[in-house]
Design brief:
The complex is a heterotrimer.
Chain A (H helix, E strand, L loop, with lengths): L22 H26 L4 H40 L3 H16 L2 H14 L1 H6 L3 H5 L1 H27 L2 H9 L4 H31 L11 H12 L3 H28 L6
Helix pairs in contact in A: 2-3, 2-7, 2-10, 3-7, 4-7, 7-9, 8-9, 9-11, 10-11
Chain B lengths: L1 H7 L7 H33 L4 H16 L2 H22 L10 H26 L3 H9 L4 H31 L11 H12 L2 H30 L1 H5 L1
Helix pairs in contact in B: 2-3, 2-5, 2-8, 3-5, 4-5, 5-7, 6-7, 7-9, 8-9
Chain C lengths: L1 H14 L11 E6 L2 E2 L3 E3 L5 E2 L1 H13 L2 E6 L5 H7 L4 E7 L2 H4 L3 E7 L3 E6 L16 E5 L3 H9 L4 E5 L2 H9 L5 E5 H9 L6 E6 L4 H4 L3 E5 L4 H17 L1 H9 L8
Classes of the chains: A mainly alpha, B mainly alpha, C alpha/beta.
Family (chain A): Belongs to the binding-protein-dependent transport system permease family. HisMQ subfamily.
Main location (chain A): membrane
Subcellular location (chain A): Cell inner membrane; Cell membrane
Chain lengths: 276, 237, 258
Amino acid sequence: MSSLVQSITPRPAPARPARAWSATRIAGHVLMAMWIIAGACLVYYLASNIFSPFVQKYWGKYLEGFVVTLQIVFVSLGLGAALSVPIALARASKVALLRWPAYGYVYFFRGTPLLAQTFLIYYGAGSFRAELTDVDLWWFFRDAWYCIIFAFTLNTSAYQAEILRGAVENVSKGQWEGGRALGLTQPVIFFKIILPQALMVALRPYGNEIILMIKGSAIASIVTIYDLMGETRRAFSRSYDFQAYIWAAVFYLIAVETLRRIWDRLEAKLTRHLKR
Amino acid sequence: MNEALTLISFGDAGWGDEIAQGVFITITLALATLPFGLCLGFFLALAKKADDPSMRMAANIYTTIFRGLPELLTLFLVYYGVQIGIQQLVKFAGFDLYIEVNSFVAGMVALALVFSSYASEAFLSAFRGIPQGQYEGGYALGLSRGRTMWLIVLPQLIRLALPALGNLWLILLKETALVSVIGLADLVRQAGIAARVTKEPFLFFGIACLIYLLLAMISSFGLVRIERWSKRGEAAR
Amino acid sequence: MRIKHLAAATALVLAAVGSAEAKDWSKVRIGTEGAYPPFNSLTADGKLVGFDIDIADALCEEMKVECEFVVQDWDGMIPALQAGKFDAVIASMSITEERLQKVDFTNKYYNTGPAIAVPKDSALTGTTDEALKGALLGAQSSTTHSNYAEEKFPSADLKLYPTPDEYKLDVASGRIDAVIDDVVVLSDWLKSDDGACCKLLGALTPDPEINGIGAGIAIRKEDGDLKAKFNTAIEGIIASGKYKEINDKHFDFDVYGG
């Protein structure tokens, strides 16, 4: 057996070839420069306005509006999640009498604009005051906030039901069979085996749904709710100062971006066992 | 029941013709937005898969902004902001003319901005589905980069991106409803006017919803046909 | 990305209907809302009618200029004027300090006060902040009346609507307890079939700080010559009796006010 006497001395990796100034690269740099200039202008504009009477007068309102937006989003998402389970179950049911109405429900709320649904519920309820008073529900539909929550909950429950159904169907049949072979009951299999796997798949669409709700909640401002968008429009309608909308854009972007990052983290953490 | 039928009939007593005009505006707006959104989305996808990091980043900033802003806010930003911006630019350049960004154009621009940032993702994932060999085959045949893209990659790209683009079209159709807020007489606004005048909000907004559903159904039907058409090459294999 | 600008440019070309225009004011574009009867409203077949419209026509005749009406939603009225969508606003816009920071105004062409209307079965008794405590009060957004409610009735819960039509729907259905608007607008509505639900709770004492000094014609700040023309014309139609004729056509009292 001969042994290696001399090995090749380690060498550094060859230097990366200098990237040519291709047309793409030039265009990319120009575009980035434009973004940076635009960003710098925006920061300068906002910074120069931070002590302006506009900000002095309205920043508290913006914060209040932001809290209202978050309330609307999370209350309707929570209620929608609860409502989505029976809908998804009905949608996957073998009984046609359950399946078809659920399908119709989902199709209606996913196929029509949230704005039209909101108007339908808000102004529609107003025209059925007598009937609603009879069944003692008028107090609920009278309040614009409840109406919005109601409309958004119905809307998001339809979307969430589809997410849930898609995720459950995505879990292979073998998982059910394996559970049954172990002698587990149907609910136990569902909650302990199927659901955790389904939720993993559903994580991304759920994140998207939250973002869609944050953005969609701006519609509440049209029916007299002072959410972030409502406060923005009120500020603009009094001051005619365009920075009203720019501040709102900053708020929304920060909210959505933060949420997206948190969600990415969460997903990476929950699916870490799937990484190869 | 008869009363409701009169209200939705065409002619002076009914609101049928006004609603039909609204439907026309809604469809026109969606159709007018589509080509801009698709082209923009396609080039954004190209930028996102470019090997130059600055290009990728520029494109990603664009999509982060327009996917993060509420569509309603984008609409207001375009409607008020672009108008003010243009007017100042014109004034700065020393001209005295008036360029109107009417609510239709504002709606179109805003919707195209949003649509393109989602469409770019659809195109990007479709690009990933096309093996490198397809490009190489094109170059080996002596085709230029542009012609390879046009003759070889694009036909496959469209097929791969169609399902996602179809969904985006359905979303676009629904988002056009927002232009009613900046005064464009689309379906929702016409229904709203009819609802206020006749005091029948449930009837008219209900009809508006049903019309959107109908449009969605027609679109789905059309999309299935287009998808089948785009796959005619596969079927022959 | 470059396409983005190209697309924007194309869209603008599509939109560019304005042309270079020497400002000799032979033609004046007038912005109005068309949702504020009896001052300005749209008929079922889309024609503008009302006091504001008649006054505008009379003024244009007096100035010997051609006028063209542009219908614009209320909350975008001042931005649209600034952006040049039209040259003057004749839409019952009150002359206030807040607005004077952005645009200029002619002298007033009428002056009326605010009032509050409530459903007929309403339990509200007075028009003080105390009496309205906790009540849901509707108003059109971006108006002096909404500002008045904000300042004078902080205990009431203010709801803002884009046009009067929406608050009328909501007060008729009982979703809100009261509405605040111009006394003439409310009276006109209460007289109609739509207004059968409601009654006038009381007229309010206008506060010049909030309600301004009457309704004027809003003009861009740089168009001082147009403002002067309008001012002369307002005096002209009052002197010629044309104003009184229009006043009597719409109202049985003097709307010009003190």
